[in-house]
Amino acid sequence: MSGIFTDSAVLRALGEHPDEPPVRVPLTAVEPDGPARGGIVVLHESRDFTDNLLALMRSLAAEGWLTVAPHLFHREPLHSTAEVFGDNLFADFDAAFDWLTARGVYPDCVGVLGFDDAGTAALLVATSRPVGAAVSVSARGIVHPLAEGAPALVDAAPRLQAPWLGLYGEDDPGTPREEVERLRDAIARADVATLVVSYSGLEHRADEPPEFPVDGDDNDLAAQAMMDAQRRIFDWFDGNLR
User: Fold this and answer.
1) Among 90, 92, 136, which Cα is nearest to 111's?
2) pTM exceeds 0.90
3) What sign has the CA pseudo-torsion 185, 127, 96, 58?
4) Strand duo 3-10 + 24-31: pairing
């Protein structure tokens, strides 16, 4: 059984207040039983670490990945409804990335997995950081940027520097299928392996990661789609983080 534990990572110094103690990002991590073959940074758009999310992290660790999720809401008050996106999210990713490399994981053996708005961040990370692979689930901001100063995904996608997989539900109102088609066209111009998969009849919620049932009904198309999505995530990291 892989072990789950909490830790913290140091934010990279900004140089403005060198005498102040470093700011730390809380982390939840799951380590494999044996030596890690690489690391996965999990970005999630939820304050809570749900059973589904922890189960996914354990499954990744069981495949040999040292899996770490920064607590993206650590700057926000307990009952804040603010969304997390922008410089702070990328700073937290960088801290988690440094935490992995300090434990002997090579940069090109680090993958990033993001859900919802953090899935958008996962794609943008793969345009500007030395990661080995990226996966985005239900990433919004395809045509219209999520925030001021952030690029739309159709504009950022041709600059991908790491293999990227995007998973979408065709009935997700936050990612209309015509926008997903435009993203398919955009990623075709990237110089790395890319793939967008859309699931008919599936709607990913915007407020939590999608569920990946272990014992789904074979006749349930949504359950089949969820299980196929999990398989693709595992295969993407397995095939690209070497």
Assistant:
1) 136
2) no
3) positive
4) antiparallel
